[in-house]
Amino acid sequence: MKNILATLFGGTRHSESKDRGEDRKYWRSASDRISPLLQILTAIANPPNRHKSRLPTDINGDFDEWFDGGAFRIVTGYTTYVFANGSRAVVHTLPYLLITVTMPGGETVKIVEGGK
Question: Which pTM was predicted?
């Protein structure tokens, strides 16, 4: 059985690869996929140039606030983020932290607070 990272990122884990070249290919592929996710999580944690009024270059829509590269809407218990690159994220904070990120290509990544 492939490990979960190999399944998410389309590679093979070391114990399944026939040679080290395949292993390096997997990690390069994983790194290429993780980088955009980290950019999204960073923007969620600290939205760059956050502002309450839409600027001409901002995303259109019914949002509470905008930031460079996206916008968000706050509802009790969760916040929805929309990014200029087509990614979306929903951050639930009640009763525990759950983050669902949908990338522009439709891939979905969920982050769940431990023990839930």
Answer: 0.74
